[in-house]
Automatic annotation (TrEMBL):
InterPro entries the UniProt entry points to: FANCF
Species the sequence originates in: Brassica napus (Rape)
Protein's name in the database: Uncharacterized protein
Length: 98
């Protein structure tokens, strides 16, 4: 497969996706270390920005035949992350709807 989405590299997308998963973990009320999460206005703003970023990017990829290979690579990256036994179930549920 060949990543052909011009706005971001596959490697950068994967890093951002992992950051988004960390954000989903925070949404459960805890950090990945098990320490309680701290939500303030700035964290909420960041969460909304992440969501909008992925929504817009994935909409762009999925609505264009030009980026079909990139769409398959996104699905592969998500599947690979979810296959890890330590991957949080709450994150798996959200990613399944992307």
């Amino acid at each position: 497969m060949v990543w052909n989405y011009p706005e971001i590299s596959k490697e950068d997308f994967t890093k951002l996706l992992k950051g988004f998963v960390d954000l989903l973990i925070l949404a459960s009320g805890f950090q990945s270390s098990g320490v309680p999460a701290h939500w303030d206005a700035e964290n909420c703003r960041k969460a909304l920005q992440w969501g909008l970023f992925f929504e817009n990017m994935l909409r762009s990829i999925n609505s264009s035949e030009t980026f079909g290979e990139s769409a398959r690579e996104v699905e592969e990256a998500i599947s690979e992350m979810q296959s890890n036994p330590l991957f949080p179930k709450v994150a798996a549920l959200v990613l399944a709807h992307l």
